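Figure 2 data, in text form.
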Amino acid sequence: MRYIRYGFLAALAVVLVTVAVANRAPVELRLLSDTLAGFIGVNATVTLPLFLVIFGGIVAGLLIGFVWEWFREHRIRAEARANRREKERLEREVSKLRKHDASGTDDVLALLEEGGPSGRMAVDLPARTG
């Protein structure tokens, strides 16, 4: 698997170097059109090789996609966080109940051993007729 990955990266490097060598001509990038730049009074231009513009566009597209996906998954991350907090709360409750059970005191059995709330064990049953 490692060799496949290295092979893919080598092929990608060859393609990127080929594109860079084929597109070395300088191009001028402008922030605004000539009409709008004349109206505002700002004429920001930069001259770069074409391959940098191409690679910059790819990187910008990837970054925009990653940020978009991060915002889209916000609901899923919030739900997972809430589920994790609920799980931790329930685990604390279970451990507290286990400690209580380990002490050997059961409320129902304690009531029966004491003779119930009235202090007697006898249960009055209705008489059978017939």
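Caption note: Residues 51 and 57 are 10 Å apart (CA to CA).
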